[in-house]
Write a structure and sequence with these properties.
With 579 residues, the chain is mainly α. The protein has 23 helices and twelve strands. Among the domains are: 115 residues, no CATH class; 63 residues, no CATH class; 104 residues, Arc Repressor Mutant, subunit A (Orthogonal Bundle), CATH 1.10.10. The two termini are 53 Å apart. The structure holds zinc ion. The site of zinc ion has 8 residues, from loops.
């Protein structure tokens, strides 16, 4: 296949990122970054914050450059809100609001030491499955270790200039509702709004206070408080002595900022400080980041004027929506996280969704019937890749989905159509022996010999059926024939059933049964089996199929008939159709 990577958005950003990195830091690894606030479940919208730089980083690696993809865990952010619907969490978590996320207890029953670690772990597991390589940086560790000491003291010395930069936006900012990078993430999806509420430093005050402007906020030193409801009341540039008072508990103290670590820069200063500190070349952010007063825009001025750095290339990314997440699986506050998607689709499919759309295009991740069409589309793309007929951009997206610079992602050896696998496990309720029998009969010339050949796609389809398809939409094959219905059938329909049953064994494969069920109404109409369908014939086929569904599964519709017949088995088909 021709190399086609010049044509997609990932490749274009990779060009820019390499050029910028060579200009700014020749010979050094290329640095791209993502910022994640583990304030609650990290949902599929937030995954775009990681996947966008990941895909660019991966392209840069493919071209032979060394890349660091930083994931900045903003776990030293304040706990803002108790998200709804989290198992093991009740209102009592409200008492921790204002503490760093790493000082809040994990949900009851968690294996992790604190709130931030609990929600980070869920994402980390999915990132491994998705093939995302990154350097994780805990901001709690960095701040508590004093890593940013010089930058903090520098920001405090230049607080007047920072205040002036922020001041240019404060009034406009108010009018615009003061969007910040993390506020934008909240808008990702109606359904996601609730859980994202807790997200990070949104709406955080920018350091302005009655006692003057300070870009630094300590967490209260009173044991049993530890909150950030503190106000800096004095600071001495010479001695670095800082005095604060806690609004929550009344505690006050004077510390030396040259040796004090229990606090952080306010978000609008923290973010550009880290761009400069890490030399970030590429970092995307949520929609509308370019509005006046947003953290990205203000950060661009602060990094240049205060920290002598350069703003990264920073595309905005649009919403990621969800279609049809079943209520019954909303065990995490109703907001699907990457692990939920990876239970019903393979990792390359999920990567493909992020790779094929430009960051500024929104898209939806299907948890409903739409996932079957998505898989059909994917299989069609794979066929085009195999025969060399894929468009260059489609081929590039496929390549980004199926492998990284480091490795090929696991694939299903025999990728049978997802919708068929879903139908089969729907009917067999996952019984392995029966599932293997049916799948082996699909293609008698090259039968499946083990379910492992159909995995992991088979497992994903089974998870989809059991977690997302409501009970009333599941297929239940009749145990006994519907005698009443059989006796009420007209002679024409009885003849159709006789024709079907007479040829059943000779057509016992997916292709054979497809020919048979469409062919019986043709034969009855006096047409050749390969006759072109007329409107009358189509109507006859439809009513024949409806009778078959009623007799087999007591409904007017169901899985595709050839699949259904194979799944039910020849003997039971004969019994239920009155043969
Ligand atoms: Zn306090």
């Amino acid at each position: 296949m021709a190399q086609s990577t010049e044509t997609d958005w990932v490749s274009r950003f990779a060009d820019d990122v390499i050029a910028e990195s060579e200009r700014r830091a020749p010979g050094k690894p290329v640095v791209v970054a993502s910022g994640i606030s583990p304030s609650g479940p990290i949902h599929l919208g937030n995954l775009r914050e990681v996947m966008t730089p990941h895909l660019v980083a991966d392209e840069v690696r493919r071209r032979g450059y060394e890349v660091r993809h930083l994931i900045s865990w903003d776990d030293f952010d304040r706990y803002r809100k108790v998200p709804a619907g989290i198992p093991g969490v009740d209102e009592s978590w409200g008492e921790h609001i204002g503490k760093p996320l790493t000082s809040v207890p994990a949900p009851a029953g968690s294996a992790y030491p604190n709130w931030a670690e609990h929600f980070k772990a869920q994402l980390i597991e999915s990132l491994v499955e998705l093939g995302v390589e990154y350097d994780g940086i805990s901001q709690t560790e960095k701040y508590l270790a004093g890593t940013y000491r010089e930058q903090i003291l520098h920001a405090m010395r230049h607080r007047g200039e920072i205040d002036a930069i922020l001041g240019r936006y404060r009034t406009k900012d108010k009018a615009a509702g003061g969007p910040s990078k993390k506020t934008q993430q909240k808008k990702v999806d109606e359904a996601e709004l609730e859980a994202a509420e807790g997200s990070g430093a949104a709406d955080e005050d920018d350091g302005a206070g009655s006692a003057g402007y300070y870009p630094y906020k300590p967490y209260c030193g009173n044991e049993g408080c530890g909150k950030d409801l503190t106000t800096v009341t004095a600071y001495d540039d010479e001695t670095t002595e800082l005095t604060y008072v806690c609004q929550a508990c009344g505690f006050d103290e004077t510390v030396r900022l040259s040796e004090f670590n229990r606090g952080k820069l306010v978000w609008k200063v923290d973010w550009p400080m880290r761009w400069a500190y890490e030399g970030v070349i590429f970092e995307p952010s949520g929609v509308d980041h370019s509005s006046p007063g947003s953290s990205f825009v203000v950060g661009g001025q602060i990094v240049r004027e205060i920290f002598d750095g350069v703003q990264p290339i920073g595309p905005m990314y649009a919403f990621v929506g969800i279609s049809g997440m079943a209520k019954m699986s909303s065990s995490k506050g109703g907001v699907p996280i990457p692990a939920d998607a990876l239970r019903i689709m393979e990792a390359p499919l999920l990567r493909w969704l992020y790779a094929r759309r430009r960051p500024n295009q929104s898209f939806k991740i299907a948890f409903d019937q739409e996932i079957q069409r998505l898989y059909d589309e994917w299989d069609a793309l794979e066929r085009k890749i195999a025969d060399g007929s894929a468009q260059a951009a489609d081929a590039a997206a496929h390549s980004r989905a199926t492998r990284t610079a480091a490795r090929e992602l696991p694939r299903t050896p025999r990728p049978l159509p997802y919708r068929m696998l879903a139908s089969v496990v729907d009917i067999t309720a996952g019984a392995e022996e029966q599932t293997l029998r049916i799948l082996a009969e699909l293609d008698p010339a090259d039968p499946l010999t083990s379910l492992d050949e159909a995995r992991p796609r088979l497992d994903r389809a089974e998870n989809w059926i059991t977690s997302q398809v409501p009970a009333e939409a599941r297929t239940v094959v009749r145990a006994e024939p519907d005698r009443e219905l059989l006796e009420s059938l007209d002679e024409q329909t009885r003849e159709a059933l006789r024709l079907l049953l007479a040829d059943l064994d000779a057509h016992w494969s997916l292709d054979g049964l497809t020919t048979l069920v469409y062919g019986v109404p043709k034969v009855l109409a006096g047409l050749e089996p390969d006759a072109k369908p007329t409107p009358e014939l189509k109507a006859a086929q439809r009513s024949f199929f409806a009778v078959l569904y009623r007799l087999l599964v007591t409904r007017d519709t169901g899985p595709r008939l050839p699949t259904l017949l194979l799944a039910v088995g020849a003997d039971r088909v004969r019994t239920l159709l009155g043969g």
